[in-house]
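Researcher: For the annotation table, I need structure tokens for Peroxidase. Please keep the output clean. Sequence:
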Amino acid sequence: MAAIIALLCIFLFAFSPLGDALSSNYYDQKCPKAEEAITNAIKNAMMNDQTVPAAILRMHFHDCFIRGCDASVLLHSTKNTAEKDGLPNISLHAFYVIDNAKKAVEALCPGVVSCADILALAARDAVALSGGPTWDVPKGRKDGIVSKASETRSLPSPTFNISQLQKSFSQRGLSMEDLVALSGGHTLGFSHCSSFQSRIHNFNATQDVDPTINPTFATSLRSVCPLHNKVKNAGSTMDPSATTFDNTYYKLLLQRKSLFSSDQALLSTPKTTGLVSKFANSKEAFLDAFVKSMIKMSSINGGQEVRLDCKKAN
């Protein structure tokens, strides 16, 4: 979840919920074995790479927050001008997993299942196969045909404060409750030093380290991310159980052991602090809220066609 500025108003038309246009049984007659094929693709990928669930979940989020959930993040450009080439998306990976799922589904029912639906279902499976909840994914999304690297600037940044986060989410029709619940996705995965470097080195004119971060935690981060870091892939897991979907993220947040400024920002208002405490104390409450917010986010309006190849428009 990274970028620089809030969503430009000219994109607002693209972010309206599809509502009744989506259906949980959309493929029951058209392609009844599609979900099984997608789940198998995720399982196979996870056998070789434990980072796949976090990568797929992040990919889905980044897709939905640009032009709606239209799989435009999967489009390829020979001129490096597609969404996947934008600075916040350079670290996205595991695109091959979606390609493999698409090939499997196309073998069952050619031209029926959209890449956007595959990505939404894959994100659900990534969570469920990591020990998290499962849910019925409303389906019937269409794929987009436009993908611009420049638009990735509108993604929420790890340096955002609570006002910037609220604005970014509200422009997608998402509430403060959705913001806190979806932030729990940070329980999976890994972050490079660049996303939190500003909190542990030269924070401001008088303080080297962000005073809101736990001092012991900051020291540990500084050891893996020194000021003049030369290790290309240096960084930290989002939490110690980075391959298990649980509520550890919120517990660490209350201990001031979060990586991003945007994480810490969730403790800057009474409402969001209350939700953080609620989710830290009740895994069930978190999982229930996460499912509701994921369904809401993944129903943001998207594209126009069913792509035959997720990397290019028809």
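Researcher: And a one-line annotation?
Model: Residues 57 and 123 are 5 Å apart (CA to CA).
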